[in-house]
Amino acid sequence: MSNEQLDQLRDQLDEVNLKLLDLINERARLAQEIGQVKRKAGQNRFDPVRERKMLDLIAENNKGPFETSTLQHLFKQIFKASLELQEDDNSKSLLVSRKKHPEDTVVDLKGEKVGNSEQKLVAGPCSVESYEQVYEVAKAMKDQGLRLLRGGAYKPRTSPYDFQGLGQEGLEILKRVGDELDMVTISEIVSPKDVENALEYIDVIQVGARNMQNFELLKEVGAVNKPVLLKRGMSATMDEFVKAAEYIHANGNSEIMLCERGIRTYENATRNTLDISAVPVLKQETHLPVMVDVTHSTGRRDLLLPTAKAAFAIGADAVMTEVHPDPAVALSDSAQQMDIPTFDDFLGSLREAGLFKG
C-alpha cells in the first residue's frame, strides 16, 4: 500500500471519527433530555430493563467485523457516561449546589454572620440542666466576646434510660439566658410537632445527626423562617448530607448551616472519626456555611484544641464545642466537655495561633 493510499484511508477514518463524535454528543443531549423528564416525573435515572433492550438491539443488528460482545462493552461505557452526565445535571439543579448558586451564603444570626470569612465559635453545655448552669457558661462566653450559645433541650440518646433533656423547660431557660445576655441560642428539635413551638424560644433550630434523614422534620424546618443547623449523620455520605440540606432549601428555607460532627468507622480511639476533608468538599459542592463539631467527633477533651485548629486551618466557617461549669457532674457526655478555665485556655491557644480572631 502506497503512502497516498494510507493517507486517504486515514482521512476517511478522521471523517468517521468526527461523525461518531457528533453522534455521541447528539446521544448525550438526548440522554440529558430524558434525565430531565425522569427527574420531573420522580423516576430513577438508571433503567436496567431499558439498557438490556438497547444491548439486545445492538446484538440483533451487528453485521461485523466487531464481535457483538466488544460492541456491547463499548456501548455500556457510553451508557455509563450518559448516566454520569444526568447525575451531573441533577447536581447542578440542586438549590444548595454551588453550580446553581456560585456566591457564598451568609447566615445572619442577630448580627453574628456565619459564612462571610470571619470564623466563629459556637459553645455551650451538651444538655441544658438548670438556669444557673447555662447562665454561668453563657457569661463566660460573653466575657470572651462570644455570642453563639448551644444547649440541648431535647436529647436523643442511644439508651432510653439516659437523660433525655428538660424539653420545654430547657427551651425556656435558653430563651431567658439569651435575652439577659444578648446571646444567639441554638438547640436541637427532634420532632416535627415541636418546631412551631421552638420558634418562640430559640434563634437557630438544630437538626441532629440521628435526624439528618428524618425527612418530615427536614420539611417542617424548611417551611419556617428560622436558621437551621444541620448535622451530618454518623453514617451519611456527602451526597446524602447535601440532599438532606436540599430538603430544607426546597421547602423554602435557605438559611442553612452544615455541620461535620464525625462519622462512624471501625476506629474506637475517638467517639467518632472526624472527616476533616468534608469541609473543603462541602465548601466546593455547596454555597452553604460549614462548621465542625470537635466535641462529638472526638468525644475527648484532650483532642478539642488540635481538631479545632485543623478545622479552622482547612477553612471551616465555625467550630462547635461543649462547655460545662463542672463536667464531672454533667448529666450527659461529661468526658468531652471543657470546664470554663479549660475553655478560656482553649480560646487563648486558638487566638495565639492566629486561627481564631473572634
Task: Give the helices and strands, then pairings.
Layout: H1 3-41, H2 48-61, H3 68-93, E1 107-109, E2 112-114, E3 120-124, H4 131-143, E4 148-150, H5 168-181, E5 184-188, H6 195-198, E6 204-207, H7 215-222, E7 228-231, H8 238-250, E8 256-260, H9 278-285, E9 290-293, H10 294-298, H11 304-314, E10 318-322, H12 340-352
Parallel strand pairs: 3-4, 3-10, 4-5, 5-6, 6-7, 7-8, 8-9, 9-10
Antiparallel strand pairs: 1-2
Helix pairs in contact: 1-3, 2-3, 4-5, 7-8
Name the features:
358 residues, alpha/beta, two-stranded antiparallel ribbon, elongated
| N- and C-termini, Cα separation | 78 Å
Overall SS class:
alpha/beta
In the CATH hierarchy, the third-tier topology of the largest domain is known as TIM Barrel
Number of helices: 12
Q: What's the shape? A: elongated
What is the topology, as strand order, of the major beta sheet? Answer: 3-4-5-6-7-8-9-10
Helix percent band: 40-55%
The top level CATH class name of the largest domain: Alpha Beta
Estimate the mean pLDDT confidence.
92
Strand composition percent: 5-15%
Provide the number of structural domains. Answer: 2
Secondary-structure element series: HHHEEEHEHEHEHEHEHEHHEH
Largest sheet: 8 strands, parallel, barrel
What would you report as the Rg, rounded to the nearest angstrom? 26 Å
What is the level-2 CATH architecture name of the largest domain? Alpha-Beta Barrel
CATH superfamily of the largest domain: Aldolase class I
Number of strands: 10
